[in-house]
Design brief:
The complex is a heterodimer of chains A (264) and B (305).
Chain A: E1 2-7, E2 9-11, E3 32-34, H1 36-52, E4 55-61, H2 67-76, E5 80-84, H3 94-108, E6 112-116, H4 127-135, E7 139-149, E8 154-160, E9 165-171, E10 174-178, H5 190-198, E11 202-204, H6 206-209, H7 219-222, E12 226-231, H8 247-260
Parallel strand pairs in A: 1-4, 1-6, 4-5, 5-11, 6-10, 7-10
Antiparallel strand pairs in A: 2-3, 7-8, 8-9
Chain B: E1 5-9, E2 11-12, E3 15-16, H1 18-34, E4 38-44, H2 51-56, E5 61-66, H3 75-89, E6 93-97, H4 102-113, E7 117-121, E8 123-126, E9 133-139, E10 144-149, E11 156-160, E12 179-180, E13 192-198, E14 213-216, H5 227-236, E15 239-242, H6 244-248, E16 271-273, H7 283-292
Parallel strand pairs in B: 1-4, 1-6, 4-5, 5-12, 6-11, 7-11, 14-15, 14-16
Antiparallel strand pairs in B: 2-3, 8-9, 9-10
Helix pairs in contact in B: 3-4
The chains are: A alpha/beta (264), B alpha/beta (305).
Chain lengths: 264, 305
Protein backbone atom coordinates (compact mmCIF):
# COMPACT_ATOMS: atom_id res chain seq x y z
CA UNK A 1 0.00 0.00 0.00
CA UNK A 2 1.46 3.28 -1.10
CA UNK A 3 0.21 6.61 0.19
CA UNK A 4 1.38 9.80 -1.49
CA UNK A 5 0.82 13.05 0.33
CA UNK A 6 1.17 16.28 -1.65
CA UNK A 7 2.40 19.32 0.23
CA UNK A 8 3.03 22.93 -0.70
CA UNK A 9 5.53 25.30 0.82
CA UNK A 10 3.85 28.63 1.63
CA UNK A 11 4.87 31.87 3.38
CA UNK A 12 4.14 31.68 7.11
CA UNK A 13 1.80 34.64 7.11
CA UNK A 14 -0.89 36.23 5.11
CA UNK A 15 0.65 39.64 5.83
CA UNK A 16 2.58 39.73 2.57
CA UNK A 17 3.16 42.90 0.65
CA UNK A 18 3.69 43.75 -2.99
CA UNK A 19 6.82 45.52 -4.14
CA UNK A 20 5.31 48.72 -5.54
CA UNK A 21 7.93 48.88 -8.30
CA UNK A 22 7.96 45.32 -9.62
CA UNK A 23 4.46 44.33 -8.53
CA UNK A 24 5.81 41.01 -7.25
CA UNK A 25 5.54 39.52 -3.77
CA UNK A 26 8.12 40.55 -1.22
CA UNK A 27 9.28 37.20 0.13
CA UNK A 28 12.37 38.36 2.03
CA UNK A 29 12.10 37.99 5.75
CA UNK A 30 8.98 35.83 5.53
CA UNK A 31 9.63 32.28 6.79
CA UNK A 32 8.14 29.34 4.89
CA UNK A 33 6.03 26.52 6.31
CA UNK A 34 4.15 23.47 5.12
CA UNK A 35 0.65 24.64 4.20
CA UNK A 36 -1.61 23.85 7.21
CA UNK A 37 -4.21 21.74 5.34
CA UNK A 38 -1.36 19.76 3.75
CA UNK A 39 0.28 19.18 7.11
CA UNK A 40 -2.98 17.72 8.40
CA UNK A 41 -2.83 15.51 5.30
CA UNK A 42 0.66 14.36 6.30
CA UNK A 43 -0.63 13.47 9.76
CA UNK A 44 -3.60 11.58 8.29
CA UNK A 45 -1.23 9.66 6.02
CA UNK A 46 1.04 8.78 8.95
CA UNK A 47 -1.93 7.52 11.00
CA UNK A 48 -3.00 5.31 8.11
CA UNK A 49 0.56 4.07 7.87
CA UNK A 50 0.43 3.06 11.53
CA UNK A 51 -2.80 1.08 11.13
CA UNK A 52 -2.10 -0.36 7.67
CA UNK A 53 1.66 -0.60 7.42
CA UNK A 54 1.74 1.59 4.33
CA UNK A 55 4.64 3.45 2.81
CA UNK A 56 4.19 7.22 2.81
CA UNK A 57 5.81 9.41 0.16
CA UNK A 58 5.72 13.19 0.50
CA UNK A 59 5.67 15.09 -2.79
CA UNK A 60 6.18 18.80 -3.24
CA UNK A 61 6.34 20.90 -6.38
CA UNK A 62 8.28 24.11 -6.05
CA UNK A 63 11.65 25.79 -6.28
CA UNK A 64 14.75 24.03 -4.87
CA UNK A 65 14.16 25.69 -1.46
CA UNK A 66 10.95 23.65 -1.08
CA UNK A 67 13.28 20.81 -0.14
CA UNK A 68 12.94 22.11 3.45
CA UNK A 69 9.20 21.41 3.53
CA UNK A 70 9.83 17.85 2.39
CA UNK A 71 12.50 17.32 5.05
CA UNK A 72 10.02 18.45 7.68
CA UNK A 73 7.51 15.89 6.40
CA UNK A 74 10.25 13.24 6.51
CA UNK A 75 11.11 14.21 10.08
CA UNK A 76 7.46 13.76 11.01
CA UNK A 77 7.64 10.19 9.74
CA UNK A 78 7.20 10.08 5.97
CA UNK A 79 9.34 7.38 4.33
CA UNK A 80 10.28 9.14 1.10
CA UNK A 81 10.43 12.63 -0.29
CA UNK A 82 10.16 13.71 -3.91
CA UNK A 83 10.70 17.27 -5.08
CA UNK A 84 9.18 18.16 -8.42
CA UNK A 85 11.18 21.11 -9.61
CA UNK A 86 12.25 22.70 -12.86
CA UNK A 87 12.39 26.01 -14.66
CA UNK A 88 9.88 24.73 -17.21
CA UNK A 89 7.31 24.42 -14.40
CA UNK A 90 7.54 28.03 -13.21
CA UNK A 91 4.50 30.27 -13.49
CA UNK A 92 2.06 27.37 -13.73
CA UNK A 93 -1.59 28.00 -12.83
CA UNK A 94 -3.71 25.30 -11.19
CA UNK A 95 -4.34 23.41 -14.43
CA UNK A 96 -0.65 23.32 -15.37
CA UNK A 97 0.41 22.52 -11.80
CA UNK A 98 -2.00 19.60 -11.66
CA UNK A 99 -0.72 18.38 -15.04
CA UNK A 100 2.86 18.31 -13.76
CA UNK A 101 2.08 16.78 -10.36
CA UNK A 102 -0.16 14.14 -11.95
CA UNK A 103 2.74 13.13 -14.21
CA UNK A 104 5.02 12.91 -11.17
CA UNK A 105 2.49 10.78 -9.32
CA UNK A 106 2.19 8.37 -12.26
CA UNK A 107 5.92 7.93 -12.08
CA UNK A 108 5.96 7.47 -8.30
CA UNK A 109 2.92 5.18 -8.13
CA UNK A 110 0.09 5.39 -5.56
CA UNK A 111 -2.88 3.67 -3.98
CA UNK A 112 -4.05 6.72 -2.08
CA UNK A 113 -3.24 10.39 -2.68
CA UNK A 114 -3.86 12.96 0.04
CA UNK A 115 -3.62 16.69 -0.67
CA UNK A 116 -4.63 19.62 1.49
CA UNK A 117 -7.94 21.20 0.58
CA UNK A 118 -6.36 24.56 -0.22
CA UNK A 119 -3.19 26.55 0.32
CA UNK A 120 -3.14 29.70 2.44
CA UNK A 121 -1.34 31.70 -0.26
CA UNK A 122 -3.51 31.02 -3.30
CA UNK A 123 -6.68 29.75 -1.56
CA UNK A 124 -7.90 28.08 -4.76
CA UNK A 125 -8.66 24.49 -3.63
CA UNK A 126 -8.33 23.50 -7.30
CA UNK A 127 -5.11 21.55 -7.61
CA UNK A 128 -6.30 18.46 -5.68
CA UNK A 129 -9.43 17.86 -7.80
CA UNK A 130 -7.51 18.69 -10.98
CA UNK A 131 -4.84 16.10 -10.17
CA UNK A 132 -7.59 13.54 -9.62
CA UNK A 133 -9.12 14.42 -12.98
CA UNK A 134 -5.79 14.14 -14.79
CA UNK A 135 -5.25 10.74 -13.22
CA UNK A 136 -8.84 9.64 -13.87
CA UNK A 137 -9.47 8.61 -10.27
CA UNK A 138 -12.30 9.53 -7.88
CA UNK A 139 -11.84 12.40 -5.44
CA UNK A 140 -13.39 13.20 -2.10
CA UNK A 141 -12.62 16.77 -1.07
CA UNK A 142 -13.19 18.49 2.29
CA UNK A 143 -12.30 15.30 4.20
CA UNK A 144 -12.71 15.67 7.94
CA UNK A 145 -12.11 12.01 8.88
CA UNK A 146 -10.52 9.13 6.99
CA UNK A 147 -10.76 5.45 7.95
CA UNK A 148 -9.29 2.58 6.01
CA UNK A 149 -11.40 -0.43 5.11
CA UNK A 150 -10.28 -3.89 4.05
CA UNK A 151 -6.62 -3.15 4.63
CA UNK A 152 -6.64 0.00 2.51
CA UNK A 153 -8.62 -1.28 -0.49
CA UNK A 154 -11.25 1.34 0.32
CA UNK A 155 -11.70 4.33 2.59
CA UNK A 156 -14.59 5.72 4.56
CA UNK A 157 -14.47 9.49 4.50
CA UNK A 158 -16.48 12.06 6.43
CA UNK A 159 -16.98 14.80 3.85
CA UNK A 160 -17.87 18.27 5.08
CA UNK A 161 -20.39 20.60 3.42
CA UNK A 162 -21.65 23.95 4.72
CA UNK A 163 -24.86 22.43 6.04
CA UNK A 164 -24.24 18.67 6.27
CA UNK A 165 -21.85 15.77 6.17
CA UNK A 166 -21.66 12.81 3.85
CA UNK A 167 -20.16 9.52 4.88
CA UNK A 168 -18.60 8.21 1.68
CA UNK A 169 -17.00 4.91 0.75
CA UNK A 170 -14.42 5.29 -1.99
CA UNK A 171 -12.24 2.57 -3.45
CA UNK A 172 -8.51 2.91 -3.96
CA UNK A 173 -6.91 4.36 -6.00
CA UNK A 174 -8.42 7.70 -5.10
CA UNK A 175 -7.55 11.24 -4.02
CA UNK A 176 -8.71 12.88 -0.80
CA UNK A 177 -8.32 16.56 0.08
CA UNK A 178 -7.78 17.15 3.79
CA UNK A 179 -9.16 19.90 5.98
CA UNK A 180 -6.85 21.21 8.67
CA UNK A 181 -9.32 19.93 11.30
CA UNK A 182 -8.78 16.38 10.03
CA UNK A 183 -5.80 15.77 12.28
CA UNK A 184 -3.50 17.79 14.50
CA UNK A 185 -0.03 17.29 13.06
CA UNK A 186 2.53 15.58 15.26
CA UNK A 187 5.89 17.11 16.04
CA UNK A 188 9.05 16.03 14.29
CA UNK A 189 11.11 13.57 16.33
CA UNK A 190 14.78 14.16 17.08
CA UNK A 191 15.69 10.97 15.32
CA UNK A 192 13.44 11.94 12.43
CA UNK A 193 15.16 15.29 12.10
CA UNK A 194 18.60 13.66 12.02
CA UNK A 195 17.51 11.15 9.40
CA UNK A 196 15.66 13.76 7.34
CA UNK A 197 18.76 15.94 7.38
CA UNK A 198 20.81 13.15 5.83
CA UNK A 199 18.12 11.97 3.42
CA UNK A 200 19.03 12.14 -0.24
CA UNK A 201 16.06 13.90 -1.78
CA UNK A 202 14.68 12.54 -5.02
CA UNK A 203 14.17 15.24 -7.61
CA UNK A 204 11.92 14.99 -10.66
CA UNK A 205 12.58 17.61 -13.31
CA UNK A 206 11.17 18.19 -16.76
CA UNK A 207 13.50 15.61 -18.34
CA UNK A 208 12.20 12.93 -15.95
CA UNK A 209 8.57 13.67 -16.75
CA UNK A 210 8.63 14.83 -20.37
CA UNK A 211 7.26 11.58 -21.79
CA UNK A 212 4.14 12.05 -19.70
CA UNK A 213 3.65 15.79 -20.19
CA UNK A 214 2.62 17.86 -23.16
CA UNK A 215 5.12 20.75 -22.91
CA UNK A 216 2.47 23.12 -24.27
CA UNK A 217 0.34 22.53 -21.18
CA UNK A 218 2.78 23.54 -18.46
CA UNK A 219 4.50 26.64 -17.10
CA UNK A 220 3.44 30.21 -17.62
CA UNK A 221 2.79 29.71 -21.35
CA UNK A 222 0.82 26.51 -20.91
CA UNK A 223 -1.46 27.93 -18.24
CA UNK A 224 -5.02 28.69 -19.36
CA UNK A 225 -5.29 31.54 -16.86
CA UNK A 226 -2.99 34.56 -16.60
CA UNK A 227 -2.67 37.14 -13.88
CA UNK A 228 -3.47 40.40 -15.61
CA UNK A 229 -2.89 42.61 -12.59
CA UNK A 230 -2.26 42.24 -8.89
CA UNK A 231 -2.71 44.94 -6.36
CA UNK A 232 -3.19 45.68 -2.71
CA UNK A 233 -6.41 47.20 -1.48
CA UNK A 234 -7.11 50.57 -2.98
CA UNK A 235 -9.33 53.45 -2.00
CA UNK A 236 -12.75 52.94 -3.56
CA UNK A 237 -12.86 56.36 -5.22
CA UNK A 238 -11.45 59.83 -5.39
CA UNK A 239 -13.27 61.03 -2.29
CA UNK A 240 -14.82 64.46 -1.94
CA UNK A 241 -12.86 67.60 -1.28
CA UNK A 242 -14.52 70.38 0.70
CA UNK A 243 -12.69 73.69 0.67
CA UNK A 244 -12.92 77.02 2.42
CA UNK A 245 -15.40 75.93 5.10
CA UNK A 246 -15.56 77.16 8.64
CA UNK A 247 -15.10 74.54 11.36
CA UNK A 248 -18.83 74.49 11.98
CA UNK A 249 -19.71 74.07 8.31
CA UNK A 250 -17.14 71.31 7.99
CA UNK A 251 -18.59 69.39 10.95
CA UNK A 252 -22.10 69.72 9.57
CA UNK A 253 -20.99 68.50 6.15
CA UNK A 254 -19.11 65.50 7.56
CA UNK A 255 -21.93 64.47 9.88
CA UNK A 256 -24.44 64.76 7.06
CA UNK A 257 -22.27 62.52 4.88
CA UNK A 258 -21.86 59.91 7.64
CA UNK A 259 -25.59 59.90 8.24
CA UNK A 260 -26.29 59.54 4.55
CA UNK A 261 -24.07 56.44 4.47
CA UNK A 262 -25.79 55.03 7.58
CA UNK A 263 -22.47 55.02 9.38
CA UNK A 264 -23.76 56.91 12.42
CA UNK B 1 -16.72 33.37 -29.32
CA UNK B 2 -18.76 31.05 -27.16
CA UNK B 3 -22.43 31.60 -26.71
CA UNK B 4 -23.98 33.04 -23.56
CA UNK B 5 -23.17 33.27 -19.89
CA UNK B 6 -24.03 30.11 -17.96
CA UNK B 7 -24.72 29.88 -14.26
CA UNK B 8 -24.56 26.50 -12.55
CA UNK B 9 -27.40 26.52 -10.03
CA UNK B 10 -26.74 24.69 -6.82
CA UNK B 11 -29.61 22.90 -5.13
CA UNK B 12 -29.61 20.96 -1.89
CA UNK B 13 -32.57 18.69 -1.13
CA UNK B 14 -34.31 20.37 -4.07
CA UNK B 15 -33.87 23.87 -2.61
CA UNK B 16 -32.18 26.37 -4.90
CA UNK B 17 -29.25 27.96 -3.03
CA UNK B 18 -29.13 31.73 -2.83
CA UNK B 19 -25.70 32.03 -4.44
CA UNK B 20 -27.11 30.75 -7.75
CA UNK B 21 -29.67 33.54 -7.82
CA UNK B 22 -26.98 36.09 -6.99
CA UNK B 23 -24.93 34.79 -9.90
CA UNK B 24 -27.85 35.09 -12.31
CA UNK B 25 -28.00 38.79 -11.35
CA UNK B 26 -24.29 39.21 -11.99
CA UNK B 27 -24.43 37.15 -15.20
CA UNK B 28 -27.10 39.46 -16.60
CA UNK B 29 -24.71 42.39 -16.22
CA UNK B 30 -21.90 40.52 -17.97
CA UNK B 31 -24.17 39.16 -20.70
CA UNK B 32 -25.51 42.66 -21.31
CA UNK B 33 -22.01 43.88 -22.06
CA UNK B 34 -21.42 40.97 -24.43
CA UNK B 35 -24.80 41.20 -26.12
CA UNK B 36 -25.54 37.66 -24.95
CA UNK B 37 -28.05 35.87 -22.78
CA UNK B 38 -28.02 34.15 -19.41
CA UNK B 39 -28.62 30.43 -19.16
CA UNK B 40 -29.14 28.71 -15.83
CA UNK B 41 -28.17 25.03 -15.60
CA UNK B 42 -29.58 22.97 -12.77
CA UNK B 43 -28.67 19.36 -11.98
CA UNK B 44 -30.57 17.09 -9.63
CA UNK B 45 -33.33 14.55 -9.29
CA UNK B 46 -36.60 16.15 -10.47
CA UNK B 47 -35.49 19.75 -10.41
CA UNK B 48 -36.98 21.04 -13.68
CA UNK B 49 -39.81 22.61 -11.69
CA UNK B 50 -37.31 25.13 -10.33
CA UNK B 51 -37.14 26.75 -13.78
CA UNK B 52 -39.89 29.26 -12.94
CA UNK B 53 -37.95 30.61 -9.98
CA UNK B 54 -34.80 30.94 -12.08
CA UNK B 55 -36.64 32.87 -14.80
CA UNK B 56 -38.11 35.15 -12.14
CA UNK B 57 -34.63 36.03 -10.93
CA UNK B 58 -33.36 36.84 -14.39
CA UNK B 59 -32.43 33.66 -16.26
CA UNK B 60 -33.34 33.83 -19.96
CA UNK B 61 -32.97 30.13 -20.59
CA UNK B 62 -33.01 27.18 -18.18
CA UNK B 63 -31.46 23.79 -18.84
CA UNK B 64 -32.13 20.93 -16.44
CA UNK B 65 -30.23 17.67 -16.17
CA UNK B 66 -32.29 15.20 -14.18
CA UNK B 67 -31.42 11.75 -12.93
CA UNK B 68 -31.84 9.82 -9.67
CA UNK B 69 -28.01 9.61 -9.45
CA UNK B 70 -27.98 13.39 -9.05
CA UNK B 71 -30.21 13.45 -5.98
CA UNK B 72 -27.36 13.99 -3.53
CA UNK B 73 -24.20 15.75 -4.71
CA UNK B 74 -21.42 13.46 -5.91
CA UNK B 75 -18.50 14.71 -7.98
CA UNK B 76 -18.46 12.36 -10.97
CA UNK B 77 -22.13 12.31 -12.04
CA UNK B 78 -22.33 16.09 -11.70
CA UNK B 79 -19.05 16.56 -13.58
CA UNK B 80 -20.20 14.27 -16.37
CA UNK B 81 -23.56 16.02 -16.76
CA UNK B 82 -22.07 19.48 -16.75
CA UNK B 83 -19.23 18.56 -19.11
CA UNK B 84 -21.75 17.29 -21.62
CA UNK B 85 -23.75 20.52 -21.34
CA UNK B 86 -20.62 22.64 -21.89
CA UNK B 87 -19.50 20.57 -24.89
CA UNK B 88 -22.95 20.70 -26.43
CA UNK B 89 -23.77 24.39 -25.91
CA UNK B 90 -20.23 25.89 -25.92
CA UNK B 91 -20.83 28.76 -23.52
CA UNK B 92 -18.58 31.83 -23.35
CA UNK B 93 -18.58 31.99 -19.55
CA UNK B 94 -19.59 29.50 -16.82
CA UNK B 95 -20.06 30.67 -13.21
CA UNK B 96 -20.35 28.54 -10.07
CA UNK B 97 -20.93 29.42 -6.43
CA UNK B 98 -17.67 29.09 -4.49
CA UNK B 99 -19.24 26.63 -2.06
CA UNK B 100 -18.00 23.24 -0.94
CA UNK B 101 -19.89 21.86 -3.95
CA UNK B 102 -18.86 24.45 -6.54
CA UNK B 103 -15.23 24.29 -5.49
CA UNK B 104 -15.25 20.50 -5.83
CA UNK B 105 -17.10 20.37 -9.14
CA UNK B 106 -15.68 23.33 -11.08
CA UNK B 107 -11.99 22.31 -11.02
CA UNK B 108 -12.87 18.80 -12.09
CA UNK B 109 -14.93 20.07 -15.04
CA UNK B 110 -12.36 22.73 -16.03
CA UNK B 111 -9.62 20.09 -16.14
CA UNK B 112 -11.81 17.76 -18.22
CA UNK B 113 -12.67 20.49 -20.72
CA UNK B 114 -9.11 21.88 -20.58
CA UNK B 115 -9.89 25.46 -19.78
CA UNK B 116 -8.98 27.98 -17.10
CA UNK B 117 -10.77 28.38 -13.79
CA UNK B 118 -10.45 31.21 -11.29
CA UNK B 119 -11.36 30.41 -7.70
CA UNK B 120 -13.45 32.31 -5.23
CA UNK B 121 -13.87 35.56 -7.16
CA UNK B 122 -15.23 38.69 -5.52
CA UNK B 123 -15.45 40.84 -8.63
CA UNK B 124 -16.23 40.19 -12.32
CA UNK B 125 -16.36 42.51 -15.28
CA UNK B 126 -15.87 42.53 -19.04
CA UNK B 127 -12.85 44.22 -20.60
CA UNK B 128 -14.39 46.78 -22.95
CA UNK B 129 -11.75 46.20 -25.64
CA UNK B 130 -10.94 42.49 -25.59
CA UNK B 131 -14.36 41.38 -24.28
CA UNK B 132 -12.50 39.05 -21.92
CA UNK B 133 -13.93 38.26 -18.51
CA UNK B 134 -11.81 39.93 -15.83
CA UNK B 135 -11.98 37.86 -12.67
CA UNK B 136 -10.80 39.53 -9.48
CA UNK B 137 -10.08 37.54 -6.36
CA UNK B 138 -8.30 37.86 -3.05
CA UNK B 139 -5.16 35.87 -2.27
CA UNK B 140 -2.94 35.68 0.78
CA UNK B 141 -5.93 35.95 3.06
CA UNK B 142 -7.17 39.03 1.26
CA UNK B 143 -3.98 41.07 1.54
CA UNK B 144 -3.48 40.94 -2.18
CA UNK B 145 -6.04 41.08 -4.94
CA UNK B 146 -5.42 39.67 -8.39
CA UNK B 147 -7.28 40.10 -11.65
CA UNK B 148 -7.13 36.95 -13.76
CA UNK B 149 -8.02 36.39 -17.40
CA UNK B 150 -8.40 33.27 -19.52
CA UNK B 151 -7.58 34.46 -23.04
CA UNK B 152 -7.19 31.30 -25.12
CA UNK B 153 -9.61 28.70 -23.85
CA UNK B 154 -13.39 28.59 -23.55
CA UNK B 155 -15.49 28.72 -21.56
CA UNK B 156 -14.00 31.21 -19.13
CA UNK B 157 -14.85 29.70 -15.76
CA UNK B 158 -15.01 31.12 -12.25
CA UNK B 159 -16.30 30.22 -8.84
CA UNK B 160 -17.79 33.24 -7.09
CA UNK B 161 -18.00 33.78 -3.39
CA UNK B 162 -21.55 33.64 -1.96
CA UNK B 163 -22.95 36.88 -0.59
CA UNK B 164 -20.92 39.20 -2.82
CA UNK B 165 -23.04 39.57 -5.96
CA UNK B 166 -26.44 41.15 -5.92
CA UNK B 167 -29.64 39.30 -6.70
CA UNK B 168 -32.09 40.97 -9.06
CA UNK B 169 -35.58 41.90 -7.90
CA UNK B 170 -37.80 38.88 -8.31
CA UNK B 171 -40.23 39.32 -11.19
CA UNK B 172 -43.26 37.23 -10.24
CA UNK B 173 -44.77 37.79 -13.67
CA UNK B 174 -42.10 35.69 -15.34
CA UNK B 175 -42.10 31.96 -15.75
CA UNK B 176 -41.24 29.18 -18.12
CA UNK B 177 -40.11 25.63 -18.49
CA UNK B 178 -36.70 24.04 -18.44
CA UNK B 179 -35.18 22.38 -21.47
CA UNK B 180 -34.16 18.88 -20.46
CA UNK B 181 -30.70 17.73 -21.46
CA UNK B 182 -30.47 13.96 -21.62
CA UNK B 183 -27.25 12.52 -20.27
CA UNK B 184 -26.61 8.77 -20.41
CA UNK B 185 -25.66 8.02 -16.84
CA UNK B 186 -24.58 4.51 -15.91
CA UNK B 187 -24.10 3.01 -12.48
CA UNK B 188 -20.32 3.24 -13.06
CA UNK B 189 -20.56 7.03 -13.00
CA UNK B 190 -21.28 6.75 -9.30
CA UNK B 191 -17.67 5.94 -8.44
CA UNK B 192 -18.18 6.56 -4.75
CA UNK B 193 -20.83 5.23 -2.40
CA UNK B 194 -22.69 7.71 -0.22
CA UNK B 195 -23.35 5.72 2.94
CA UNK B 196 -25.04 8.41 4.92
CA UNK B 197 -26.01 12.07 4.79
CA UNK B 198 -26.43 13.75 8.12
CA UNK B 199 -26.38 17.02 9.97
CA UNK B 200 -24.74 17.26 13.34
CA UNK B 201 -26.65 18.19 16.54
CA UNK B 202 -29.04 21.10 16.18
CA UNK B 203 -29.02 21.85 12.52
CA UNK B 204 -26.92 24.94 12.31
CA UNK B 205 -27.86 27.32 9.58
CA UNK B 206 -25.07 28.01 7.16
CA UNK B 207 -23.75 31.41 8.29
CA UNK B 208 -24.06 32.85 4.79
CA UNK B 209 -27.80 32.18 5.00
CA UNK B 210 -28.26 33.48 8.56
CA UNK B 211 -30.20 36.66 9.27
CA UNK B 212 -28.30 37.42 12.49
CA UNK B 213 -24.71 36.61 13.32
CA UNK B 214 -23.10 36.98 16.70
CA UNK B 215 -19.44 36.88 15.91
CA UNK B 216 -16.49 36.17 18.21
CA UNK B 217 -12.75 36.22 17.82
CA UNK B 218 -9.59 36.61 19.83
CA UNK B 219 -11.50 38.63 22.45
CA UNK B 220 -13.63 35.66 23.62
CA UNK B 221 -10.45 34.03 24.91
CA UNK B 222 -11.25 30.34 24.31
CA UNK B 223 -13.90 27.79 23.32
CA UNK B 224 -16.02 28.59 26.38
CA UNK B 225 -16.11 32.24 25.36
CA UNK B 226 -18.46 31.39 22.51
CA UNK B 227 -21.10 30.01 24.90
CA UNK B 228 -22.65 33.38 25.87
CA UNK B 229 -22.58 34.27 22.17
CA UNK B 230 -24.53 31.11 21.40
CA UNK B 231 -27.10 32.03 24.01
CA UNK B 232 -27.48 35.48 22.52
CA UNK B 233 -27.70 34.01 19.02
CA UNK B 234 -30.40 31.61 20.22
CA UNK B 235 -32.47 34.50 21.61
CA UNK B 236 -31.98 36.54 18.44
CA UNK B 237 -32.71 33.56 16.21
CA UNK B 238 -29.25 33.78 14.72
CA UNK B 239 -26.00 31.92 14.45
CA UNK B 240 -22.56 32.19 15.98
CA UNK B 241 -19.66 33.01 13.70
CA UNK B 242 -16.01 33.70 14.28
CA UNK B 243 -12.98 35.44 12.89
CA UNK B 244 -10.04 33.40 11.68
CA UNK B 245 -8.14 33.37 14.96
CA UNK B 246 -10.89 31.47 16.79
CA UNK B 247 -10.94 28.83 14.08
CA UNK B 248 -7.17 28.51 13.81
CA UNK B 249 -6.97 28.16 17.59
CA UNK B 250 -9.40 25.25 17.42
CA UNK B 251 -12.06 27.05 19.50
CA UNK B 252 -14.82 26.72 16.91
CA UNK B 253 -15.33 24.81 13.66
CA UNK B 254 -14.16 26.13 10.30
CA UNK B 255 -17.68 26.37 8.90
CA UNK B 256 -18.34 29.26 11.33
CA UNK B 257 -15.55 31.44 9.98
CA UNK B 258 -16.36 34.83 8.50
CA UNK B 259 -13.71 36.52 6.45
CA UNK B 260 -11.53 36.43 3.40
CA UNK B 261 -10.46 32.89 4.14
CA UNK B 262 -13.87 32.01 5.53
CA UNK B 263 -17.26 33.06 4.28
CA UNK B 264 -18.63 36.38 3.14
CA UNK B 265 -21.85 37.25 4.92
CA UNK B 266 -24.17 40.05 3.88
CA UNK B 267 -26.17 41.14 6.89
CA UNK B 268 -28.06 44.30 7.72
CA UNK B 269 -26.26 44.67 11.07
CA UNK B 270 -23.11 43.32 12.60
CA UNK B 271 -22.23 42.82 16.25
CA UNK B 272 -18.75 41.35 16.56
CA UNK B 273 -17.45 40.53 20.02
CA UNK B 274 -13.78 40.70 19.39
CA UNK B 275 -10.72 42.82 19.74
CA UNK B 276 -10.39 46.04 17.74
CA UNK B 277 -7.23 44.69 16.17
CA UNK B 278 -9.23 42.13 14.26
CA UNK B 279 -11.62 44.69 12.87
CA UNK B 280 -9.49 47.34 11.26
CA UNK B 281 -11.88 47.08 8.32
CA UNK B 282 -12.62 43.49 7.50
CA UNK B 283 -13.01 43.60 3.78
CA UNK B 284 -15.08 40.45 3.70
CA UNK B 285 -17.69 42.09 5.84
CA UNK B 286 -17.52 45.33 3.91
CA UNK B 287 -17.94 43.43 0.69
CA UNK B 288 -21.17 41.99 1.95
CA UNK B 289 -22.26 45.38 3.15
CA UNK B 290 -21.48 47.19 -0.02
CA UNK B 291 -24.18 45.27 -1.83
CA UNK B 292 -26.72 45.86 0.95
CA UNK B 293 -26.16 49.55 1.75
CA UNK B 294 -26.91 48.83 5.36
CA UNK B 295 -25.91 50.27 8.67
CA UNK B 296 -22.69 49.51 10.51
CA UNK B 297 -23.24 49.64 14.25
CA UNK B 298 -19.94 47.99 14.97
CA UNK B 299 -19.21 48.02 18.68
CA UNK B 300 -15.66 47.26 19.61
CA UNK B 301 -14.90 45.41 22.79
CA UNK B 302 -11.65 46.04 24.64
CA UNK B 303 -8.80 43.69 23.85
CA UNK B 304 -8.44 40.96 26.43
CA UNK B 305 -4.96 40.67 27.87
Amino acid sequence: MKIVVCIKQVPDTTEVKLDPKTNTLIREGVPSIINPDDKAGVEAALRLKETLGAKVTAVCMGPPQADVALREALAMGCDEGVLISGREFGGSDTYATATIIAAGLKKIGFDLIITGRQAIDGDTAQVGPQIAEQLGIPQVSYAEEIQAEAGGKAFIVKRQFEDRYQRIRVKAPCLLTALSELARPRYMTVRGIVEAYEYKMQILGFEDLKEMINPDYIGLKGSPTNVMRSFTKEPKGQGTKLRDLSAEEAVTAIVAKLEEKNLI
Amino acid sequence: MGKDVYVVIEQRDGHVQKVGLELIGEARKLAGELGQQVTAVILGDQVADKAGLLYQYGAERVIAIEHPLLKEYATEPYAKGLTQAIREYEPEIVLFGATSIGRDLAPRVAARIHTGLTADCTGLDIDPETKLLRMTRPAFGGNIMATIICPHYRPQMATVRPGVMKMRERDQGKGGRAELLKVDFTSEDMNIEILEVYKETRKQVDITEAKVLVSGGRGVGGPAGYQPLRELAEVLGGEVSSSRVGVDSGWISKDRQVGQTGKTCALPICRPFTSPAEYPGPSSIWQGWRTQNSSWPLIKTPRRR
